[in-house]
Amino acid sequence: MGDPPGFSVMAAMCRGRGIGYKNKLSWWQYPLKGDYDYYMDWTSRVTSPDKYCVNIMGRKTWETTGEEERNRKHVFNIVISRDTGKTLKKDPHVHKIISSFDDAVRFSLSTENREQFESVWILGGEKVYEEAVQHPLCRRIFLTEIMEHFQSDTFFPQFEEEKFEKTSESDVHEENGIRYVFKVYSRKSE
Ligand SMILES: NC(=O)c1ccc[n+]([C@@H]2O[C@H](COP(=O)([O-])OP(=O)(O)OC[C@H]3O[C@@H](n4cnc5c(N)ncnc54)[C@H](OP(=O)(O)O)[C@@H]3O)[C@@H](O)[C@H]2O)c1
Questions:
Q1: Domain count, the chain
Q2: How far is the CA of 160 from the centre of ligand 1 (A)?
Q3: Residue 1 counted as domain residue
């Protein structure tokens, strides 16, 4: 509300910046319900019933989502894919398929859609995050930092920390013996 147009990034990373392994979360053997609930809450929050949160993600990340994530009332799912094949098109929970990150952002923040799209969230994976954190309209980065190392094949990019400031940091949470902290980095005003 009153914020300049832009989007937020939501990610969780372990030590070494890992985010995923073999198309699962790197820490898949240690489910972190608190982190899942945090992500589900922020990325679907609206202030009135006629509004939507746009969730933008790469095709592989989409394939990792479960029914509960895909089918949320106030969420408009955009999947980035160059594949014009039928599988995504047939999926009733994919509201739009767009072939580039920039076009997905342009569509979500366009004047005609701004009324209904209350917030725009970038949900990964690696390449999508890379484009997102470098984009001038990236306003906030919600980063769960997991204080443990897990084998990973996809990573959260370094971002220009001088352009952002840490505006919130939670207490340390612990689940299944894994400790983690919720941090939010906000773009500094120019
Ligand atoms: N920890 C976290 O917060 C988090 C969040 C998200 C994902 N993950 C993990 O990350 C892994 C998946 O990430 P990933 O990097 O392998 O895949 P991804 O980015 O989710 O998906 C890659 C696919 O998305 C499409 N795509 C991505 N960027 C594109 C672009 N700029 N232009 C056109 N198409 C683009 C392409 O689809 P087509 O091949 O269909 O053209 C590409 O093959 C999984 O292990 C997942 O669990 C972790």
A1: 1
A2: 21
A3: no
76, 53 Cβ separation under 8 angstroms? yes
Q: Measure 4 CA to ligand 1 centroid, in angstroms.
A: 27
Distance CA 73, CA 8 (A): 20
Element (H, E) at 52: strand 52-58
Cβ(113) – ligand 1 distance below 6 Å: no
Q: Report the nearest atom of ligand 1 relative to the CA of 99.
A: 33
* pTM, 2 dp: 0.96
Which CATH number characterizes residue 157's domain? 3.40.430.10
pLDDT in tens, 160-179: 989 999 999 999 999 999 99
Q: Is residue 168 part of a domain?
A: yes
Residue 86 CA, ligand 1 centroid: distance in Å: 18
